[in-house]
Amino acid sequence: MKKITFTLFVYLCFVSLINAQDVTTFFDGTPDDAIVVDSNGNIYCSNYVGDSVFKFTPEGVGTAFITGLITPNGLAINSNNELFVCDGQGNRIYKYDLDGNLITFYNHLGHPSGIIKSPNSDAMIFTEYLGNKINMISSTGIVTEISSAPQLAGPVGIAFDENDNLYVGNYNNRTIYKVLPNGDLDFVALLPNEGGTIPNLGFITYAQGRIWATIMGNNKIYMVNPNGINDFEVFAGSSQGGADGDISIATFNTPNGITFNDAEDTMYVTDFGTKNLRIISNIALSNEEFELDNRLIQIFPNPVKDKIKIQTFEAIDIEVVRLYNLEGKLVSEQHTPSHEIDLSSMMAGVYFIEISTNKGVVNKKIIKD
Questions:
Q1: Same domain for 301 and 235?
Q2: Nearest of 36, 193, 198, 222 to residue 114 by alpha carbon
Q3: What is the DSSP track for 110-133?
Q4: pTM over cut 0.70
Q5: Could you tell me the CATH number of the domain that includes residue 298?
Q6: Exposure winner among 218, 231, 287, 326, fewest CB in 10 A?
Q7: pLDDT value at position 60?
């Protein structure tokens, strides 16, 4: 196996002495897809347009850990430190020990893409990109369906929160959903398309109470409030590039894979465009990042037949009101809104109203009779 060396060990020692959120690039190898970290701090990255999974050790040594795959995609590690690799176009999931020895594989899958360990067992949850499904594979190899909801459109990203709630992200249309126990989906966010050549959602992960997502063509990393509706903001990135340094000036080139370390203060990202591993250190956010007290804005009546009224408190000025349907599609937008919104022409159903103000954003669910 080809050895790749870089300054990861020196870098990790250095960043422990500073508090800035810094981005550093490792140029060796060709990682461009999913990322996972084992219990010893080793980082594994897949190369979807190649045939390899790369391993980077805490001591700063990189190797092409597994080779000979077709399109290595999602990665996950179980409690026995066994590595699962989704081989998308190979329609298989492989399981290896951490010496790189093949243990077993599972066949006849519809382009397995993202994968994650179940929080309550050694079962693995994985997405089928072409099958538009979320499945579970047991420790004995039995595959059962979790969801084939119609909103799934090329699902790839998959993540659990601290309460074992499951989230999924669609590669095709950049939409994130919460997966309910019965397999239905609750809309969380539709991330923007800024016109890049790959206008897709790469992967999602969960840390510090947020969902984190890469939008490849936007060259940006987003953080999403899982308890809101379309409540998200850019965490890092701007124009396409490869600049390191402080998070405020660092740039990315088609970011794709994303994950955190166990302490949730270090983020790992693969750039699909340059095939580099990027590391963002010292991530610490306020728990109030997304909060605007919902009590400061009230809407009524709800359910509503014709017109809904918005009442504000504490000198809050409404700037934009957007209305989304249950699929997350924008159906109405008012940039000079009054405190009364006419919904008489809308079809009956469930909608989400996003109220942007001078002090933040509030999202509420409304029912149109």
A1: no
A2: 36
A3: S-EEEEEE-TTSS-EEEEETTTTE
A4: yes
A5: 2.60.40.3080
A6: 287
A7: 63
